Amino acid sequence: MWSFFVKLCRTAVTMLGSAILFWISFILLFLLFRTKRPKNFPPGPRPIPIFGNLLQLDLVDLLNDLRKLSERYGKVYSIYLGRKPAVVLNGLQAMREALVTQSVEFAGRPKGLMINHLSEGKGVGMTDGPMWKEHRRFALTTLRNFRMGKPSMEERILGEIFHIVKHLEKNAGKSTDPQTLFHKAGFNIICTVLFGTRFKHEDEFLQLNIRHITENSKIINGLWGMIYDTLPLLRTLPLPFQKAFQNMRMIRKSLADQVSQHKESRVPGEPRDLIDCYLDEMEKRGDDGSSFSENQLVFYLLDLFFAGTDTTSNTLLTAFLYLMTHPDVQERCQKEINEVLGEKEQVSFQDRHRMPYTQAMIHEIQRVADTVPLAPFHATTKDTRLMGYNIPKGTIIIPNLSSGLSEESQWKFPHEFNPSNFLNDEGEFVKPEAFMPFSAGFRVCLGEGLARMELFLILVTLLRRFKFIWPEEAGVPDYTPVFGLIHSPKPYKLGVRLRGSGDLGA
């Protein structure tokens, strides 16, 4: 009995010693990895060592959590991605002060995140410094030339709309699945600029690249993207975020093949498309030490590819979801379109100035679509101050564009779909300052002009030709978007009817 008691005591002492050793180790690790908040840094939830605030956020419904944190800590607050501090900007005042008033100080890009590793520090979207300035200037000049040249950007868009119309005519009188229809159109429009080519909707190049783009849009900023950004130790494991890198390799290969084909067929000084323009620029610069290179071109095309395909396409999907379920708005737009266009064969982008209600509807769609809820993250380029707080150089900045698009003090109807948000008392189109779906300042979206033209020409053309009806068998509409780098509506069926002569006055 005595020996048993002694063994029991020894076991208890061993267990107690192990427990004490465990807690000492935990405390030492806690002290080692404890995150120290900089002096006068924006307030926020207390981070957990190693994890930061990852375990305190609902990554499936992140925007709702960011809204709750703003209600508790204010319009400018901090969260931690692992050990990396990030400042979240909420509402018009905070975003304008950072992105516009202090645009230079907040125009950097963070390092070491998934989106950086996917782009390998190249392209234009996630670069900064001289490379970013050179390539942004080149893109703005080239895209402007395409808008004014022959065929003009408007002609390219109208040419692609013809194929949308043909598809919808075949499905008139029934329901169709629109989930890839507008992606194919957006993809082809940007392809005519980049490659001088459009692809048939069943083409493998088109279908595979659209799939890779849409998958990556959901991974970046989504659950697995946030895990990748927060926990570097997991990055080499075979987890779902590896799919984003596989997709990126496939897209890069297809773009590199396009560049190779252009090198063989181009005539220097006679550019057919953006690739030719870039290759001409490379030859002109020679070995001047600029950032222009063939490898950089591939990533440059990739950035424009992403920007030109998924955002506008998902905005259009949102548009038809709301137009089907708000027939009064659809009919009022159609009445205005009929009155303005009359017997005119096709719409022109200039016609928008005579369509205030249709303009208001399109902008209201962009507001409720909230297509890019969190702008690609910025970083401070030097130590600075924002709304009374100190922000050290290199701090990640997260502009919560979604917060401005639904800010109660900025909109007449912040939580409902209502084109009156963009109309004054005289029925004239107005654009409130809080409307920033393309971000603002130095980092405003390169494709804003193209997106605005696409949305207007496509929506007006289709509303003039068709009536869109929510299918009876579709049940109750669900407006809740699927979160990611790009918001997208949940899949739905599109009811299509041809408008007859009796519809011309309505």
Structure description:
The chain has one domain: Cytochrome p450. About 50% of the residues lie in helices and about 5% in strands. The chain has 16 helices and 9 strands. The strands form 3 sheets. The protein has a 4-stranded mixed β-sheet. A 3-stranded antiparallel β-sheet has the order 3-9-8. A two-stranded antiparallel sheet has the order 5-6. The radius of gyration is 26 Å and the shape is globular.
Q: Work out the count of structural domains.
A: 1
Give the overall shape, derived from the CA principal axes.
globular
E-strand count: 9
CATH architecture: Orthogonal Bundle
Order of helices and strands: HHEEHHHHEHHHHHHHHEEEEHHEE
SS element count, helices: 16
The CATH class is Mainly Alpha
| CATH homolog superfamily | Cytochrome P450
Q: How much of the polypeptide forms β-strand, as a percent range?
A: 5-15%
Specify the biggest β-sheet. Answer: 4 strands, mixed
Q: What percent of the residues sit in helical stretches (DSSP H or I)?
A: 40-55%
The low-confidence runs, each spanning 5 or more residues with pLDDT under 50, are 19-33
Counting helices, strands and paired strands, the structural category is alpha+beta
Spatial separation of the terminal alpha carbons:
99 Å
The Cα radius of gyration reads 26 Å
Remind me, CATH topology? Cytochrome p450
Strand order of the largest sheet: 1-2-7-4
Provide the residue-averaged pLDDT: 89
